[in-house]
Amino acid sequence: MADQLASAGPPRALIVTIYGLYARDESGWLSIASLIRLLAELGVDEPAVRSSISRLKQRGLLEQRQHGGAAGYGLSERGRSILAEGDRRIFARPRAVAADGWLLAVFSVPEQERSKRHALRSRLTWLGFGTVSSGVWIAPGQLADQVRDVLASDGMAGYVSLFSASYLAFGEVAEQVRRWWDLDRLGQLYQSFIDAAEPVLELWQGNEDLAAGRAFADYVRVLTAWRRLPFLDPGLPAELLPADWHGARAADLFDAISSRLAAPAAGYVATITGDRPESAKSPSPARPATW
């Protein structure tokens, strides 16, 4: 596997991916023993697993619970909410059309609350906004409902005003878009994902009988590397993107790997957790965090 995917993220990012894929049933729970065995397949040792779980608990994503007499951790309500927010962007990847227009977020945060200013800017970036000026941010209009709900849920509504807008002048919209978003950097990130993930698909196309544990490890690494990209991508109309845009190719590659590895990966997890294979969650691109 390419080095980029072998180190797809810190252990806590891998754990979030595992919960997003395989712990979304009613209990939302995995035992500590199962997590340690699953992360070992990804090259993460037990102390790193326990330390990462502790951090996720401190962030409010996981809760310590027992299930059937076994110690483990389940998703908190906040954790479930974050994963649900991510589903649509990661797997469905909605793209705007010109008729959607634009969504403007105009905000002002008092100096004494500068930490909230940073949190708000981070949240707007995660939602796909670009920057027109320091207090005016822009996104495709089709994100309006999601943005309104997320900012209200985060307690940020008092600092932001949202406007529906149309671009009138001056200059070509495509030129302005490249000022509002760093599409060059995003294109490079997509190309890096392609460079790292293509060898994985090629490996599995020629080796159908590789171990199920390998399928699990490869799938979790690929999804962990992939899942941040749809949040950096605002889903701009196709006609406003560069001619050599790598996003569509990267998405097709992710879908191909997911289609090939999701089932054997879920089967492997079922052997570790003791669940029936069909109970493990295996999302498809059609199913609607931060993951």
**SS summary, helix count:** 12
Q: Could you tell me the strand content as a percent range? A: 5-15%
Alpha-beta classification: alpha+beta
The averaged pLDDT comes out at 87
Can you give me a brief rundown of this structure?
The protein is an alpha+beta fold.
Task: Describe this structure as you would to a colleague.
The protein folds into 2 domains: 1-94 and 182-291, no CATH class; 102-165, Alpha-Beta Plaits (2-Layer Sandwich). The protein has 12 helices and 7 strands. It has helices at 3-6, 11-22, 32-41, 46-58, 77-92, 114-126, 144-153, 173-180, 183-206, 212-226, 229-232, 247-273, and strands at residues 29-31, 62-67, 70-75, 102-107, 130-133, 136-140, 160-165. Strand 5 and strand 6 form a beta hairpin.
Topology:
Elements: H1 3-6, H2 11-22, E1 29-31, H3 32-41, H4 46-58, E2 62-67, E3 70-75, H5 77-92, E4 102-107, H6 114-126, E5 130-133, E6 136-140, H7 144-153, E7 160-165, H8 173-180, H9 183-206, H10 212-226, H11 229-232, H12 247-273
Antiparallel strand pairs: 1-3, 2-3, 4-6, 4-7, 5-6
List keywords for this structure.
7 strands; alpha+beta; 291 residues; Alpha-Beta Plaits; 2 domains; 12 helices
